[in-house]
Task: structure prediction
Amino acid sequence: MQTDISVRHLYKTYGDGFQALKDINLEIYRGEIFALLGPNGAGKTTLISIICGIVNLSDGEVEAAGFDIKRQYRQARQAIGLVPQELNTDSFETVWNAVSFSRGLFGKAPNPDHIEKILKALSLWDKRNNRIMSLSGGMKRRVMIAKALSHEPQILFLDEPTAGVDVELRRDMWEMVRQLRESGVTIILTTHYIEEAEEMADRIGVIRQGEIILVEEKDLLMSKLGKKELRLQLQHTLEKLPGELTLEPIELSEDGHELIYTFDSQQEQAGVARLLRTLGDLGIEYRDIQTRESSLEDIFVGLVHE
Result:
């Protein structure tokens, strides 16, 4: 796979001695959606800001689109579009002028057709002559995405792009993200809406206290770390678990009405079949069975607090 972003032994220490990033090593591939997850203060925004050339690194090497971000800053930055968390748009400008001006900042020749295409894709075409200060928060965030796409970047960073955005706008944005990925754009996103990462991302990276603790393909991560839960609602209340069941990863609910069996998704068949046979041998009857699979949020919370 072709690498669009390469981070090697990256460190960042601020003037007060706080070490924000510690020995970060990361490769992000051309045309993938990579979700960077982590609690507040974990270093997500610092890492993005360094790759985008906004914050200076303390040590290490970073390349974007094959360009070293220190020695070839201009070429690297031209390959990157960034949608930051903060809404820092030019309030008195019109939507059209702000997006067109952003394209010019990167040395790109005017291209009204491209600007029109972006604004229509983001449902901003009808607002093109409106001053940004008159727009809603969700529309202002769309303008920031339009500005980030104005110079046709190869790499797009989305730092909490749907914060404060309603459900309808969020769906539109993610549809546009899918289309960008299909056209070959590499997308890196941070989000507090973990269900978005679960739906959208090809790979997941988890950062904690300035260190990358895991990078994995989403489906493989869910398979390896995901747990399944089998709940059996009993016909008759149990006061305690029979001795024959104590060797299983099984619990009895406080009211004695339910058995909860937890198992790895990779070994579900043998364990569940054995459990049901044992219940039959013990004469324990159940009237309903429900299953639940770990979400990415369950996995993320477990990793961060591990």
Q: What stands out?
A: The CA atoms of residues 91 and 133 lie 4 Å apart. The chain has a mean pLDDT of 85. The longest strand covers residues 3-13.
